[in-house]
């Protein structure tokens, strides 16, 4: 799932045979792990010195997270 996140995917449809059970498992186990890893990556990125993009002088804009408004 983090590979899709790295590609910029905001919404991923993951379906199995037990829709309710799978939704509960995703909410309980998978989503917290993904959020934790994304937060870890964000902290590591924030700890690095910022550099400007070559040529334009503009900074890269952060991606908007679907679980944060």
From TrEMBL:
Can you provide one Gene Ontology molecular function annotated for this UniProt record? monooxygenase activity
Q: Where is the composition biased (Basic residues)?
A: 60-69
Q: Which organism is it from?
A: Lentzea xinjiangensis
Where is the stretch described as Disordered?
Answer: 45-69
Q: Which UniProt keywords apply?
A: Monooxygenase, Oxidoreductase
Q: What is this protein called?
A: Alkanesulfonate monooxygenase
